[in-house]
Amino acid sequence: MEDAMNPTGTPVLRRVDDAPRPSGMPFEQTQQFQDVFTAAHEFLLNRIEDQRLDIASWAQDTVVKYVDAETASFVQEWRIPINEAEMRLVSSALVKELTGFGPLDDLLLDPEVEDILINGYQDVYVSCGGVLERATVRFCDNHHLLRIVRRILAPLGRRLDESSPMVDARLPNGGRLNAIIEPLSVTGPSVSIRKFRKDPFTPDELLARGTFDRAIHALLKAAVLGRCNIMISGGTSSGKTSLLNALACFIPHNERVITIEDTAELSLNHPHVVRLESRLGGFDGEGSVSIRDLVRNSLRMRPDRIVVGEVRGAEVLEMLQAMNTGHDGSMSTIHANSPRDALYRLEMLAGFAGFQGSESSLRRQIASAIDFIVQIARLGNGRRVIASITEVTGVGDNIITTQEMYRHEAYVDVDGRERDRWPGLGFHPHTHKLEPFRQFLREAGSALP
């Protein structure tokens, strides 16, 4: 039993030629791999510093060749007990560490991965198709994890340290990163990365994936073209942003759309979009620009439609006023478990924002502003579907009245396969904005199923 020493004489790797490896576990998931990788990384950094190399300016294939050669030299010099295939795995990990984001590289590039959730350096989970599963990658330790996160944040001008232990940032590829470290996170650094498709889903693609059926597709299209104000409600990772992106495909191209978000996530497939993003202030709050400020300013930018990525604060008052003063066709999302909960949440947010009127006047304003609430949900198998479509019809007995037009149901067909359907409840849309759609239904000789 012997310790390998780096060029400075510090023990960096315990060599045990016959060290047991858990049966069936891939080499890159073992502690031995982490030990070899850590020692090789330090060896490589010393070599780069000694040779005064600027590998950041090198082509990728040149970096790969250099790292391969140096890894082989390290393994031979320190007589590391790994074979050639294992050495290539170490070399590949070193390339990703030097030129990319280390263990996160493959996950960030994988189009099937929707979310990356890291609970300390050893626990990495990914969400694919709405299903959460443990990933096969890990970090050497929490310092390694923080090094990679800070490398991601550096070009964004954001920091993560004791004075700023929480960070929420938009990634260059359109994704979003949230990180929180000790002492706020008791179990070590916690990192959540939400990825977004390069090309957002279109309504036809969502239809093909079974998110809704043709009747709902027709209603949503008519609602957007008819300039109805739509609120998309749902839980975390239920598909609210994807649905909002898809609905924007129905907006006529001769209209000007302004999007307002905390962290820019929307990617509307529309030729005339102005994207606004709020800004955090300094340590004393100076220089901050809230979503409420942006909504207020957007009214002076000649918008045809205003799209608020998520309503969760005082901006609800400005959004409701905009919807009630000539900016029909606006859309937003809200975190709520049902359409009724969404209405309660709007009332609560307006109250927190300092609404000065009575409870009944607030409810009348909400009822006149919102035309439809589209509830979207993630099923147990990870699929996202529209759970219901509810129309806001007015106020009665000091309660906002609604009518549910469609509701999702799961059933088992004769072959034993689970299917989806959205039975209609027999109601025509109440709003005058959809009179052309009602006329179409009458001429077709059919009511909503």
UniProtKB/TrEMBL annotation:
MF terms from GO for this chain are: ATP hydrolysis activity
Region feature (Disordered): 1-23
Question: Which CDD domains does this one have?
Answer: VirB11-like_ATPase
| Start and end residues of each Bacterial type II secretion system protein E domain | 99-378
* Top-level division of the source organism's lineage: Bacteria
Q: Name the family the entry cites.
A: Belongs to the GSP E family.
Q: What is this protein called?
A: Pilus assembly protein CpaF
